[in-house]
Amino acid sequence: MMDGLIQQYAEAEELIATLAEQRGRIEMEIMRRLRAFDATYAETPSFEANIKEGSATYDPSKLRLLMEHISQADLEAKGAYIPEHEETRTVPEKWNATKVRTFANRGREIKAIIKGARIPGAPKLVVTRKENT
Questions:
Q1: Does the predicted TM-score (pTM) go above 0.85?
Q2: Mean pLDDT (the chain, rounded)
Q3: Of 45, 51, 84, 113, which residue is least crowded by CB atoms under 10 Å?
Q4: What 3 state SS string does 26-89 have?
């Protein structure tokens, strides 16, 4: 009685893994073809495919250059920077990218530092079924 259920479960797990691997290969090929045309969007009569940018992170060592142009006190006051400090352990400095970007209007050099610190997130393919199909 349990043998059959356990076997079905194991087979389902294997099938899911195989399908996930197949989906990953198809996704990579769609993204490769879109990039070959420098495109982020494609459509068929029934579906749309978009490459969505992943969430970017910022390199703290590069953002630290902002302190040559903006005072640490100003960065902290705006919530853009939290210096290294000790709690029960040493907590490394933190940069709030949303708030750091508000300083980009202070000149080309600052904007370049912020842009240079940006680490793009992994893009993700999003396929949706069109309405009325």
A1: no
A2: 92
A3: 45
A4: HHHHHHHHHHHCCCCEEECCCEEEEEEEEEEEECHHHHHHHHHCCCHHHHHHCCCEECCEECCC
